[in-house]
Structure formats: structure tokens, C-alpha cells
Amino acid sequence: MPERELFELWLASEAEIREIVPGDNMNNSSLSRNFADFMLQHLIRGYSPSLLRKNEHGKPYIKDLPFSYNLSHCEDLYAILVTSFDYCGVDIQSVKSLVKYDDALRSVMTDREYGILKEKGNPGDFFQLWSLKEAYVKALGGSIWYGRDFETETAPGNFSDTWFKREKLFFYSTEVKKEVFLSLAVPALPETADFLKFLSKDFS
What we know:
Pfam families: ACPS. The protein is α+β, with helices and mostly antiparallel strands. It has a single domain, classed as CATH 3.90.470.20. Helix content is about 30%, strand content about 25%. Strands 4-5-1-10 form a 4-stranded mixed beta sheet. β4 and β5 form a beta hairpin. α1 packs across α2 (about 30-45).
């Protein structure tokens, strides 16, 4: 067991990451990987990039250390969730065209969820729920197309800024900036409510 509970969610813009992580011509994948290495070395004693592994689902984990982490990227915003739980999931989604993404949304939502959301007609509700489902499958390992395995009991669109439990996981979702939603999925509630940190404000 780790010596303390670790539960921190860090958000950073592409420009902020490029300031703290040296390197030219980094694409999104390189930025995510280097951001992860930087934050994991800052947060976890004994961490080294040589300890990173991927399981059979492609989910990253840290060999021989009792911590888990997960990454997400949307437009110019990057997120890393680092916890002392066995696994975790984080996802960021921006609001997009409902018409363009209708087939994908229908595939991920259950019939009940899709019907409620379609009746409400709010694109933000669709993509916030999409981010919750992404966090779910990223926590457990798998594809977003398993999103239909997880159905919210509360009405879609009513789960902002509060924890709720479903399928033995705890979920949290919030709008981190206009029309950009971030969601978490973890096996237990964190001890601290102050887990959201911004690289530009909190890092020293």
C-alpha cells in the first residue's frame, strides 16, 4: 500500500506543457507521454519512465508501484489523473455537432439515455455523458463501444460537479471550460475534495 492516498487531477494547456517539458516537434502523443513522465516523477517517489507498461487492453500502468494513472487530451487541453487506487479513468470531451456524431452517439448510449438526451436536445449533455462513458471504459480497460454496458441511473445531464456510484465505480464530471467536459471513474471516493489542479496556477 502507498504511504499516503494520492488523488490528483492535473490540467495543462499545450503551451504550458511545452514550457516545462523540453523538446521540439512533439506531436499530441509525445506531449501526453512527456507530460505524464513529468507529473509522475513529481508526484510518485521512486517513479521512472522505465516502469511504464501496458496491459492487454493497451491501458498504461506503473510496474511495481501501488499507483495508477490515466491520460486524456482534447483540443489544446491535457489531463492526467494520478491515484493510489488500483485503476482509474479520466476523459475530456468538447461539444461537437450532434448531426455529425449521431451514429457514434447512438452506438455508445443506451436506448434510454439516447431517447432522453434526444428529447432534451442539448449537445452538452450528450458529450458530457460520452466523457463519463469514456472514463468508465478507460478505468476498466477496453473500447468506448463498451459504453452501452454502463447506464446512468440519474437522468443524463444531472450529474455535474457531484459524485455518483454506478457499476461498482464512482464517477465525477464537470465543465472545465465552456463546452469542454471532464469526467473521472475510480473504484472509491477520494479522501480529499481538492483534487483538481491547474498546472499554471498550482505547480511550483
